[in-house]
Amino acid sequence: MSIEFIGMIQSQRVSEIHPASGPVVDPDYVRRFAQAHEAAGFDRILVPHHSTGPSAQLTIAHAAAHTQRIQFLLAHRPGFVAPTLAARELATLDQFTGGRLAVHIISGGSDAEQRRDGDFLDHDQRYARTDEYVGLLRQLWTSDQPFDHHGDHYRFENGFSEVKPLQQPHIPVFFGGASDAALPVAGRHADVYALWGESLEQVADITRRVRAEASRHGRQVRFSVSFRPILAATEEAAWARAERILEETRQLRVAQGYSRGGPQQSEGARRLLAAAEKGARVDKRLWTEIARETGARHNSTALVGTPAQVAEALLDYFDLGVTTFLIRGFDPLEDAIDYGRALIPLTRALVEQRLAQRQAA
């Protein structure tokens, strides 16, 4: 199998080194951001979810209206919309986008974040709810008859969706979560298991565990890993840029009154911090300083080097079975354009070479 690249767009310019600027919803920025990813050769764009931010679903609807080819990944949290309604809304969006939608199921790694929207389940209870929720989405997308459901978290009678996804048998399901409560749910439901940019040793471990869970259900799972590539014409210049990004991140956090903080209930964040404990530079060029600085509350590890060097580092993850790379920069729009110049085509070429070598062997 070849590889795919996923980018990420937001409704305004913001990152660790850029304070939020412009209106909270900037339609023109979203249009340019999405079109830049399409022109750069990305396969898909993630639109994230936050408890105080704009609707990711409506952001995708706007971006899809201004693009032709690129697909979308909707960050979606179970618990705030009934699965019967969510199934119909997502199937409708898949129809309107021409079958370009996937859904990224995020159960929630922060009690405080969840409670802003009125969700007071604890960490493990959220994953139990996700298990029931995603199972119902699949059933609603594929069932040709109404059905009743009486579960631990949801109850309805004659649930049905007249609208089915354009993609068959259903919309692709991405899933995130690395805790003991999360992995069995991933094994049952994930088409793609997504994790943050961990070390090669950590990725080998968790992909093995997810494959074991999936095999219990006769399933196979693909894997996605997220990085923040920092590129320059030379390796020295790339590391110098990384140090500037770290300093700018610290300055902005001080100005905004942020503390380093902890990872809350996120096992993924704890795993990034465990990688950071091994040093600022892990493996060939995995850089962990931003994760350490921010408490690893999101995908915050980088691969640093020239485009060719970072492409070689991505190939190491491909050799572990990773076929999807979510890459986004600290200069979000500018980096997305830059990745399309060399990193994306170079990585695709290396993967094709590796596949040819395997076939020949």
Short key terms for the protein model shown above:
13 helices, alpha/beta, 361 residues, 19% strand, globular, TIM Barrel, four-stranded mixed sheet, single chain
Summarize this entry quickly.
The chain is an alpha/beta fold.
Note the run of SSEs as H and E: EEEHEHEHEHHEEEHEHEEHHEEHEHEHH
Question: Could you report the average pLDDT, rounded to the nearest whole number?
Answer: 95
- Tell me the number of strands: 16
Please identify which CATH superfamily we are dealing with: Luciferase-like domain
Measure the end-to-end span.
16 Å
**What's the arrangement of strands in the largest beta sheet?**
1-4-5-6-9-10-11-16
Strand percentage, roughly?
Answer: 15-25%
* CATH architectural type: Alpha-Beta Barrel
Biggest beta sheet summary = 8 strands, parallel, barrel
Count of all domains: 1
Rg, Cα atoms, Å: 20 Å
CATH topology: TIM Barrel
Uncertain spans: none
The dominant shape is globular
By secondary-structure content and strand pairing, the structural class works out as alpha/beta
Q: In CATH's first tier, which class applies?
A: Alpha Beta
Helix content: 40-55%
| Secondary structure tally, helices | 13
Walk me through this protein's architecture:
The chain has one domain: Luciferase-like domain (TIM Barrel, Alpha-Beta Barrel). Helices cover 46% and strands 19% of the residues. It has 13 helices and 16 strands. It has an 8-stranded parallel β-barrel, surrounded by 6 helices. It has a 4-stranded mixed β-sheet with strand order 12-15-14-13, sandwiched between helices. The radius of gyration is 20 Å and the shape is globular. The mean pLDDT is 95.
